[in-house]
Amino acid sequence: MTTVIHAGEINLARHEWRWEGIGFLAPLFLFALIVFDMPLLIVVFWSFSDPAAGFPSLGSYQAFIESGSYARIIWRTFLIAGEVTIATALLGYPLAYWISRLEQRSQLIAIGIVTMTFWVSILVRTYAWIVMLGNGGILNRWLLSLGLVSRPVEFLYNERGVAIGMINVLLPFLVLPLYAAMRRIDPRLLHVAETLGASRLQIFWRVFFPLTAPALGASMVLVFILSLGFYITPAILGGGRVPLIANMMDLLINKFARWEMAAVNSVVLLTATLAFYALYQRLRGKAT
Amino acid sequence: MSAPATLSRHQPPWLAALGCLTLLFMCLPVLIVVPMSFSSAQSLEFPPPGLSLRWYAAFFGNEIWAQAGVNSLLLATLASSIALVLGTLAAYGLVRGTFPGKALIEANFMAPMIVPSIITAVALFIVFARLRILGTFFGLVLGHTILVIPYVVLIMQVAIRAFDIRIEHVAATLGASRMVILRKIVVPNLLPSAAAAWIFAFVISFDEVVVTLFLAGTNMTIPKRMFNELIMQINPTITAVATLLIGFNVLALALILLLARGRHLQRSLA
User: Fold this and answer.
1) Is the Cβ pair B45, A95 closer than 8 Å?
2) Is A232 part of the contact surface with chain B (CB cutoff 8 Å)?
3) Which range has the top average pLDDT, A39-43, A142-146, B179-183, B232-236?
4) Residue A236 sits in a domain of what CATH number?
């Protein structure tokens, strides 16, 4: 008899939770609606309306396409994002692999170091490159004092400088999930390949790498998405000479007061981000 | 769990070298900035010719930096506290509730983490300008709150999911009201995770640059001032600020790990 009462109570409780769940969500739902969803919708609306008259128009998009400078900066952003993603993968995959094959204690230390760098603010990590590679930085002072160069070498303030800073910031985003994926691989699979007479190279390329490929793909897409929206690193290490989409949006808002063009760029960047995020979710589904 | 001999013991030397170099590359900013901050030299000499605390004195003795520090602390405290309350309630509703459209609502709460912060910055700039709260501290708090909410929802969802719903059901069958269940069972059990989520949100807000640059107006924060100084010139005071930020973030990370371990301990004891 008691069990019957219990079952009834639980059902009752579940039925009540259903509605209370919505009650718990309501405050944040309202907050997100007012402080996030509505502003984004207004930006989309702005991009499709005439800045002077306010009626619906595709004029801003026309201006966007006709002016070559927007396309040029967006193309550069995608290009740098692609380069940074490939470089991050080429450095990050071997690092994750090496860490995952270390002794347990060394693994903990190495992953601890990676996590620590992840936690140091992007501003600090970017600033450090000015200290090291800037015109008055450590490396140039050494080169000058050794007499190897007569005036400072410009390591930064170009695309290479921006790329170095971005790779440094983004490496943990690739290494940490990749390391987790490598740890999940069943070692017995590798044992089997070994007993069947596969060489070390064969085991890696035919068994290990294919098993980690979805995680590698997902992490690379994540790094690419993050690269598209970078603002701080190009602003500091590009010295204003390597503006990416985000820096252009900053100029459009804070310098030229062309809000409608900033809105168009926002919509373009948002569309690209969401498309690649959908790809990321698909790859991640395969990786786990 | 042992890896097969073929792949574990014979790590080729080039792989070890590449791994070490990449790890060094990742740490280089910290390894350079921290010693530089204790330098006695006016310029960026490395290794520092002598040790001194002059750049820390310059930081703490400067009124603008002090004001920026107060603003940053206040801003991060308000944003992470509001986010903790709203985010924890929402996480509870998401985990315990079942209703249509739940996945969509959850995605909506996570969106500020995925949407590039420059877009959020532009959107809030345009709307806040219309509402005449652009450049106010209140607007800045709103902007930071929406940015840190995804992290709170994420952490609290994991914590609530790990907490056995049957305990709540048993309390309900024993006659406890919903409020009593929440106050006496749910909240005390979630406290360590809530503290971890709060610290996480605090650090994200404390380090935030992009949205702050757009919304702050004349309000100064530590990262904003740092960013402005960097654009203009090399000032060794920044190395001291950077070192303090590194120490602050690493301390926060240690606290979060400690809280997470405490929770596991609690669970394994129960």
Assistant:
1) no
2) yes
3) A39-43
4) 1.10.3720.10
Chain A interface includes B143 (CB < 8 A): yes
CATH architecture of B54-269: Orthogonal Bundle (1.10)
Do A147 and A259 have their domain in common?
Answer: yes
Same structural domain, A29 and A91: no
Residues A118 and A256 in one domain: yes
CB proximity B13 to A under 8 Å: no
User: Does the distance separating the beta carbons of A187 and B1 come in below 8 Å?
Assistant: yes
Question: Within this chain, do residues A107 and A16 fall inside the same structural domain, yes or no?
Answer: no
Q: Is A84 on the interface with B (CB under 8 A)?
A: no
Residues A120 and A168 in one domain: yes
B111 interfacial to chain A (CB closer than 8 Å): yes
Dump pLDDT digits (tens) for A86-130.
999 999 999 999 999 999 899 999 999 999 998 888 988 898 898
Asked whether the bond before B47 is cis by omega within 30 degrees of 0, the reply is yes
CB B153 within 8 A of CB B83: no
Phi first, then psi, for residue A157 (nearest 5°) are: 60, 30
Residue of B nearest to A172 (CA): B26
Statement: residue B1 has pLDDT above 60: no
Q: Does residue A228 belong to any structural domain of this protein?
A: yes
Which of chain A's residues have a Cβ under 8 Å away from the Cβ of B108?
29, 32, 36-37
Please tell me whether residue B72 adopts helix, strand or coil conformation.
helix
Per the structure, the count of domains in chain A is: 2
Residue A53 within a domain: no
Q: pLDDT-based confidence at B45, cuts 50/70/90?
A: confident
pTM confidence score: 0.88
User: Which pLDDT band holds residue B10 (cuts at 50, 70, 90)?
Assistant: low
Host domain of residue A43: 1-47
Residue A223 lies in a domain: yes
Q: Residues 138..177 of A with a Cβ closer than 8 Å to B: which?
A: 138, 141-142, 168, 171-172
Q: Domain locations in chain B?
A: 54-269
What's the confidence (pLDDT) of residue B262? Answer: 59
User: A169 with A250: CB under 8 angstroms?
Assistant: no
What element of type H or E holds B198? helix B187-207
Residues of chain A numbered 192-231 and touching chain B (CB < 8 Å): 194, 200, 203-204, 208, 225, 228-229, 231
Question: Is residue A61 in some structural domain?
Answer: no
